[in-house]
Design a protein that fits this description.
Largest sheet of chain A: 7 strands, mixed
Radius of gyration of chain A: 13 Å
Shape of chain B: globular
Order of helices and strands of chain A: EEEEEEEEEEE
Low-confidence stretches of chain B: none
Oligomer: heterodimer
Largest sheet of chain B: 6 strands, mixed
Mean pLDDT of chain B: 93
Mean pLDDT of chain A: 95
Structural class of chain A: mainly beta
Low-confidence stretches of chain A: none
Number of helices of chain A: 0
Number of strands of chain B: 11
Amino acid sequence: KAGVTQTPRYLIKTRGQQVTLSCSPISGHRSVSWYQQTPGQGLQFLFEYFSETQRNKGNFPGRFSGRQFSNSRSEMNVSTLELGDSALYLCASSLPAGELFFGEGSRLTVL
Amino acid sequence: QQQVKQSPQSLIVQKGGISIINCAYENTAFDYFPWYQQFPGKGPALLIAIRPDVSEKKEGRFTISFNKSAKQFSLHIMDSQPGDSATYFCAANGGGGSQGNLIFGKGTKLSVKP
């Protein structure tokens, strides 16, 4: 069974640009969560989607947004990038009330 | 109230020793406490989890001890091996009726010396 797939794995952007990250969950998983991981702040929850609906949202500015498609695939978007957005963005999928399975992440560098 | 505090930040243990990592929380509404293991370049992977109606859970060499009254829980790794060298995160579910919204501790980098 394939795991959670995140693309791209690495990307470099400049301040002010926007970025879209993609996540394909494990087959059969309808819940997708996104996390930001940085050395200073650790792992921080961004948002959670279930059946195309945002179920929970973390404490991030409106520049961070996401969506989920009918096939459970999810995307997150960061607009007007800032240097502080440099991070590893992790996607996780799960069955309802099940454990989270994380992907390997998309490493974003903002110059 | 929404924080999970983890200690120590780093830990060095000899092979065969016991590794102990501690976490504390404030919000009594938390009802799911997982531990994740992360190797460099990889995403976190669930190691073991506990709910507050149980005081201890053991899976192989890994044990969670849970003290509801003290709002603390800890991970014990028995017979620590060099392959256990990784970063460990405790977490608690942040509410909203799901387990997808986790609040993580800041992590403990464990090094097991051969």
